[in-house]
Specification:
Rossmann fold, 3 domains, six-stranded mixed beta sheet, globular, alpha/beta, Arc Repressor Mutant, subunit A, six-stranded parallel beta sheet, 372 residues, 43% helix
């Protein structure tokens, strides 16, 4: 039986991330079950498609989405946007997305259930629709539980990380918990809290959003919202089938739930006696969920996330040897690598993490993921 074809357009920058891999893993898994062939397309392919052809869009940026939504309109194609937030458009667009509003409500209620009484919201970028969904969820929850003030307890990242964090550190002693809009800001808080006399979670409970690999190695490991990106991929085929069987259906949306992964950055109670651990997923988020606007100051965290997600067993052993002070010669022998192969892998690690030498690499891991 000839396989049906599933047409996909991916954003080049996004396709180099671990979060893309999670979506594609789900998509490939479901496509294999349903005998679909995934076909990656270019702009020139679109004009040859029959009107009504369904096109899967996988990317993160507004320019990318706007471009292909307009092209789909021009050629009478039916787009499905996977995983990202909603885009303001008058054009009929289908979505497979995640309910970030309810996810933030869940994280605030979880913090309250383990004793939080004053909860800040950190890292909101008002130009990101997904951030504003989280902001609305936080605001709804803290107002209902009287656990925060939307006028004073929200720290926006529109002007970059330094301004955002400076304002937060000035007021940090007002709070017993902070909900961050992404794992990057949460990891940054975990890394620098002691400089301000803050112990986590005793003085301040910290939660992230996105379940990055990085969050497993912060000190302490990060409680976070896990976005079910693999499920996003598996839902593409059912939605594709629904649209295919109903040509008069212009667009529809599937909204998926998220989960909270509890780790040691929040306190335990009788109802939360065991902190869940998360396997190292070949994952996020890269959506605006996971890429803050202020890349200049958080690019090292982003680089660490991508590096960890793409490591093989040899890379893990090499980094542990570097962190433990093993000499290059001894480490190469232990890993059964020639000098050339060892130097190649070492330079690849330096390049992927943005480090120039071993000292910088060791310092980077020490600062942000000391539990690695």
């Amino acid at each position: 039986m000839k396989k049906q074809e599933l047409y996909v357009i991916t954003e080049k920058q996004y396709s180099n991330t671990n979060w893309y891999i999670r979506i594609m893993n789900g998509l490939y898994q479901e496509a294999a079950k349903k005998s679909f062939k995934i076909v990656f397309c270019s702009d020139s392919d679109l004009q040859s498609f029959e009107p009504g052809t369904i096109l899967i869009l996988i990317g993160s940026s507004k320019p990318f989405m706007n471009k292909y939504i307009q092209l789909c309109t021009k050629f009478s194609l039916r787009p499905i946007i996977t995983g990202s937030g909603f885009y303001q458009t008058n054009m009929p667009v289908s979505y497979i997305t995640i309910n970030r509003y309810s996810a933030m409500i869940d994280i605030v209620q979880a913090l309250i259930s383990i004793g939080a009484k004053s909860i800040a919201l950190l890292g909101v970028n008002s130009s990101f629709q997904t951030d504003m969904q989280r902001y609305e969820g936080w605001m709804s929850a803290v107002r209902f539980h009287k656990a925060g003030n939307p006028d004073t307890d929200v720290y926006f990242s529109d002007n970059g990380l330094p301004d955002c964090m400076e304002a937060f550190w000035k007021n940090v002693h007002k709070y017993d918990a902070v909900a961050c809009t992404n794992d990057w800001y949460a990891s940054y808080v975990c890394s620098h809290a002691r400089e301000y006399g803050i112990s986590i979670p005793e003085d301040l409970m910290v939660t992230g959003f996105g379940n990055t690999l990085l969050g497993q190695y912060t000190n302490p490991p990060l409680t976070t919202v896990s976005l079910n990106l693999s499920s996003v991929g598996t839902q593409v085929l059912p939605l594709h089938r629904l649209l295919s069987q109903n040509p008069d259906l212009q667009a529809c949306t599937e909204t998926l739930k998220s989960d909270i992964i509890f780790r040691e950055s929040t306190k335990k109670t009788a109802s939360n006696t065991t902190l869940l651990d998360s396997p190292a997923l070949f994952a996020d988020d890269f959506f605006s969920d996971f890429i803050p606007a202020d890349k200049q100051h958080l690019n090292q965290l982003y680089a660490l996330e991508n590096t960890i997600g793409k490591m093989d067993e040899t890379d893990y052993k090499m980094i542990h040897g570097l962190l433990e002070g093993t000499s290059y010669h001894a480490l190469a022998e232990n890993l059964f690598l020639s000098d050339t192969a060892f130097k190649y892998r070492l330079q690849k690690l330096f390049s992927s993490t943005g480090c120039n030498n071993r000292a910088e690499l060791v310092q980077l891991f020490h600062d942000y993921i000391p539990r690695f």
